[in-house]
Amino acid sequence: MHNYLGRMAVTWLLLLAAPSVFGETTIIHAGELLAVPGKATKSNQTIVVEGQRITEIRNGYSDPADFEGEVTVIDLKNHFVLPGLMDAHVHLQGELGPKNDSERLKMSPQQVEMRSVMFGMRTLMAGFTTVRDAGSSQQEMYALRDGIEKGWVDGPRIIASGGVGITGGHADISGVSPDLMDMFTSENVCNGPYDCRRATRNVIKYGADWIKITSTGGVLTDRATGTGQQMEADELREVVLAAQRMGRKVASHAHQEEGIIAALKAGVASIEHGSYTGPEAIKLFLETGAYLVPTLLAGETVVQMAKSSEFMSPAIKEKAITTGAAMNDSFYKSYKAGVKIAYGTDSGVSRHGTNAQEAVLMVKAGMPEMEVIKSATVNTADLLDMSDSIGTVEAGKYADIIAVGGSPLENIEELLDVDFVMKSGKVYKD
């Protein structure tokens, strides 16, 4: 009797499960497929998706009748299909502009959160299925990350960074009254190595996937403190060590070479911007295997704003024009020397949803189209330790798939107009 009941229970479980299994098969007919950026494309391919994952890539256009159960067919025979793109440097909670100061005072955290959802969707609809947020109001960003992961709201997959910076440095509040500085100073602003160790542990405690530090000054800090090294070597080392002890990697904002060198010697996984990367820094990049995230779009954006707008202070304008102008040359020298490049825009400085403009700038600076696409897929997945689940269109990986009308290997601007977006097997744009 017990065996009979057991068999009946199993039968009912199988029957209940069957619709969710057989009803979630999607086949994509891809005219031209770049399954693994860096390798050759293939024509007339069928991508089989079960639930959130890719299960198979078949030559030719498979007939839906070849599959059991209900099958959804997506016709991309006239499209170029590739993995979902990734942006390793975004700030989803805002956009640079003349209203930033008033927004800080007038917008509630809840309003900032709702706007972040909008910016996230603009990013996703542009073909960027995964992003690393490189510093935002942390609890709001962690909530958005978790809400997307749980399916409560739509948006790109988010890897959320917790910021650690020093008093008066780029990650500290600037450009407002002393009273407001006191009010808005983060508890993760630190002084000295052991205090920075504390701050690192603190951001991990509250949910950070990554640690973001600022080894040099920043363009948008409203102080005439330049873009040279600001965090000391011992502070950098303690941040990296504390992060590593707790299974986290560190990204460092860095413009001037001295600060890049100090961050690389401390053991960071990526350098953000790298505006004045020189020979010694390049040597360290190659020795350590760290990635450069160039953010050329941010450089171009601040240069144009500095020349055409009035909301930037003189200190910011001066840094914007000089630093932005140096970025392209440093990026090309780094790439030609063999430095590993991961794709990042610093969107939030630039407008969200324009992330593919970075690809155009990278090609213009001298990087081949295939290498640009590889930087936004394979390389960024490697930086994020997610190569086993995203970055290519292969069996076992999340079905993060986009399509454009023509080949971006021939014209990178095709990425500016994405026709189809799928993330984790769900279609967001077709």
Sum this structure up briefly.
By secondary structure, this protein is α/β, with parallel strands linked by helices.
Please explain how this structure is put together:
- This protein has 2 domains: 2-84 and 392-429, Urease, subunit C, domain 1, CATH 2.30.40; 85-383, TIM Barrel.
- Helix content is 40%, strand content 22%.
- The chain is built from 13 helices and 16 strands.
- Strands 5, 6, 7, 8, 9, 10, 11, 12 and 13 form a 9-stranded parallel beta sheet that branches. A 7-stranded mixed beta sheet has the order 3-2-1-4-14-15-16, with no helix packed on it.
What are the SSEs and their pairings?
Elements: H1 2-22, E1 25-33, E2 42-50, E3 53-59, E4 71-83, E5 85-90, H2 100-106, H3 109-125, E6 128-133, H4 138-150, E7 157-166, H5 178-184, E8 189-190, H6 193-205, E9 210-214, H7 233-245, E10 250-254, H8 257-266, E11 270-273, H9 279-288, E12 291-293, H10 296-308, H11 314-337, E13 340-341, H12 357-365, H13 369-383, E14 401-404, E15 418-423, E16 426-429
Parallel strand pairs: 1-4, 5-6, 6-7, 7-8, 7-9, 9-10, 10-11, 11-12, 12-13
Antiparallel strand pairs: 1-2, 2-3, 4-14, 14-15, 15-16
Tally the helices.
13
The second-level CATH architecture of the largest domain is Alpha-Beta Barrel
Q: Indicate the overall shape.
A: globular
Order of helices and strands: HEEEEEHHEHEHEHEHEHEHEHHEHHEEE
CATH C-level category of the largest domain: Alpha Beta
CATH superfamily of the largest domain: Metal-dependent hydrolases
- Give the helix proportion (percent range): 40-55%
Class from secondary-structure proportions: alpha/beta
In terms of per-residue confidence, which ranges show pLDDT below 50 for 5 or more consecutive residues? 1-23
Computed CA radius of gyration, to the nearest angstrom = 23 Å
- Work out the strand percent: 15-25%
Multimerization status: single chain
State the separation between the terminal residues, measured CA to CA: 53 Å
Count the domains.
Answer: 2
